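S.,

Sequence below, as promised.
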Amino acid sequence: MFLELEKEVYHHVGIDWWLEEVKLLIQPWWETDSHTVRHMVLVKPTKTLEEDRKSVRNLLGLTKEEDWPTFNLSSMDLFIWNCRGAGNARFRRNLRELVRLHQPDMMVLMETKVEISSMGMFFNNLGYTALTHVDPIGRSGGIWLLWSPSQLNVRVQNASSQIITATISRQDYPDWVLSAIYASPNICLRDKLWNDLSALAQHTQDPWLVAGDFNDYSSVEDKRSFSSATSQNLSQSQRNSQKFSDRISSCNLMDLGCVGPRLT
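The prediction came back faster than expected:
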């Protein structure tokens, strides 16, 4: 973060589930002792805590006497992996370790490159005894959705070579919709995928998570060959990234970001 001297800026942040936004005032600050001048940044809320609480109570329709509602929003753990081939010992070894570490309730595997029938009882032995799948065409693509029926219920709405959409239900939690994506590298087929997603966006009322491999990028910085691109290629990359960003916005989707190495 860079802050120009003598300037104030406002930074919007989300705090917990019940606040739409909190506005923080960020100010430059200098502290001088006998030897050095320390440059710091002072961050403080623009409203008092009492004013923020009053705003939240009004938002929730609570009186002064009513307690804050409490929710446990940690519904389930979901594991999504573009495995780039599931028909080898390395995949099985890595997946066993990932399941041991994270114990996901549901898994989405993409670009499997083999049919689910080739896996035998492998997933059953890991505890995932329910599944829906789209097998690859030849050695291209494949989406597998696997879960433990003792933990949740999955109702598949539709499935194609690029998308599986399902409603996820779990006791004591609201239903939500998952669209697991493996987008085709073919531009025309990818256009059809986004037409389907746009239609889903218009008719889906429940919370909706769209996740997977879109074979696209929302910023030219996310493209591996960006540094060596010509001006013509760069211009085309910028148009492509803008198109992808526009599609995300048109579906009222929000990029959740990621943590970890770039280009993964």
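Residues 25 and 148 are 47 Å apart (CA to CA).

Coffee later?
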